[in-house]
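Extended Data, record Type IV pilin PilA
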Amino acid sequence: MIDKITIQKGFSLIELLVVVVIIGILAAIGTVSYQKYMKYPLFK
């Protein structure tokens, strides 16, 4: 007999949530760093 192999296409909800959380953390860190950079300009 031939067993049916199910091929999963796409991403699960958990995988998408993990990616969104990681992107959110990186965006938050980048925003804070950018604000600190703009607060203290290079030319004083």
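Summary. The longest helix spans residues 13-39.
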